[in-house]
Amino acid sequence: MPAVAVQRRSFRVWLLQVLGVAALATGVFWLLYAIDSPPNALGYYFDFDPSEITDATASLAGLIAAVFGIVITVVSIILQLSASRFTGVTHLFFADRLNLVLMTYYIVVCIFGVWLSLALHHDHAPTLALGAMLCLDTLGLALMVPYFGYVFWFLEPVNIVSRIRRGALAAARRGAEVNDEAACFQEQSHALSGLEQLTDISTNSISGKDKIIASGAVDALKDFALSYAELKTQAPEQWFRIGTSIRSNPDFVAMDPESLTDLESRRTWVEWKVLRQCLGIYNEALTQMRDINYLIAIDTRYIGERALAAGDVEALRLVHRFMNSYLRVTINAKDVRTAYNVLNQYRLLVEAVLRAGQGELALEGVGYMKYYGHVSFDQQLTFVTETVAYDVSALCEIASELRSPAEAALLKEFLDLDRPSLNSQQEKALLGVRKAQVKLACYYLTQAEEGKARTIAADMSQEPRDRLLTIRRQLEGVRSKDFWEIIDRGHNFEFMRDEDRSKLPAFFAMFDDSQPLIAS
């Protein structure tokens, strides 16, 4: 259900609560009053005696003022607590129409009561005004508790995040629709401010170990980017120019002028800002809250897939750059598990690019993955290098299924991934790369593509016989596709389908026909 529809439904529920409380209290009074009064109970009740109701009239004015004081006190305390955790909450609260209406209501009724307290004369009681004051006081009392419920609902973190996202998107939409350049640049600033508020909420939540709120803020950044992709196609050229109101922003002011010009010409400054916020959150969460790192990688893939669907090549290349940045900081931190999960999302993104027929862009992504596989190899993060190998192997299989023109180039990149080992740790990584290559070769054999399998065999021709025997033995020994631990990918890297495993003898026979490699 859309957020606006949820908000309207909540408002209707709140209004029914208020009316229900007021009707119940008034109904109980009139029922009991009618039982214990003359036949014309209504007329008898409103037959006010000016000399007897002076104190009551003043009390009506004082009562609503007291209720208003309670409301202000409670709301102020709650709002202050929320404002200390979330940036921009006070502005959101006073920008909400219902909050303004309620505060205005209590002020108007208080002023009405003050004037009414001096409206009595010894021979005249303003029956209509007194009746109105009774109704207004009744409604004010009935509003109090349901309004507290509304305030608590309004200040729930999920709702705050949703409002900030909607406000930022509304600013972007207005900026993309106005013709005036100054107004456009002003809306750019409003949209940028909303994105930064979401980042503040996420980073503060990470510091406070509040994963739910941090995840909600990250998803809000992603949802903004996905919605923005829809209105981007209709935005005028002036929207893509970086206005003076945001050029001094810390994320832009330090950039080289040529880089700013590139963002304008590529029409990607908004996506750059969103992903730059994601990168900041990623750095904050690294080694502290890994689930946020995984979520950022997933959401970045969604942004890339939306750019792919829209044919926005520049935005897709920007997503590649930020995926690379995630990998760089993760490898520098030697966080193997996070790199493993980020690579999974990177592979899924490149797979989507391949299936969309964008072979050259997919080749770019594989080239980056290979590069970080080499960086991991140099830093002795062997499992990361193995992960890259198995991911690129899977992409080569998909390219073969799709008969992609980029298949040959992808295979070449894959075979360039291995390097001569320098020590025992790197020997393990090289062994994992070779296993991935053997798996791909067996897949080619099942597809009757012996030439490609022989290309892989030729690349492995200088491998020691003992290493080849170890590879075959270990691949034949894995019979379950499920890894023995819970992992996001859900399957064992070394698992081979029965039809692929059956091709192992044929592949290893390519190395030495006279003395075939047979696993003991």
Q: How big a fraction of the residues is strand?
A: under 5%
**Largest sheet properties:** none
Low-confidence stretches: 514-520
Q: Determine the N-to-C terminus distance.
A: 60 Å
Percent helix range:
over 70%
> How confident overall, as mean pLDDT?
85
Strands, total number: 0
Query: What is Rg?
Result: 34 Å
The helix/strand class is mainly alpha
Total helices: the number is 24
Shape: elongated
H/E series, N to C?
Answer: HHHHHHHHHHHHHHHHHHHHHHHH
What this model shows, in words?
The longest helix is centred in the first third of the chain and has 33 residues, at 3-35. The protein is elongated, with a radius of gyration of 34 Å. The chain has helices at residues 3-35, 41-45, 54-83, 89-95, 97-117, 127-154, 157-177, 181-207, 211-232, 244-247, 250-253, 257-266, 269-285, 290-309, 313-332, 336-355, 359-378, 382-402, 407-415, 424-446, 450-459, 465-477, 498-501, 504-508. The chain contains 24 helices and no strands. It has 520 residues and is mostly helical.
Keywords, please?
mainly alpha, 24 helices, 0% strand
Layout of secondary structure:
Blueprint (H helix, E strand, L loop, with lengths): L2 H33 L5 H5 L8 H30 L5 H7 L1 H21 L9 H28 L2 H21 L3 H27 L3 H22 L11 H4 L2 H4 L3 H10 L2 H17 L4 H20 L3 H20 L3 H20 L3 H20 L3 H21 L4 H9 L8 H23 L3 H10 L5 H13 L20 H4 L2 H5 L12
Gist?
The chain has 24 helices and no strands. It is mainly alpha-helical and 520 residues long.
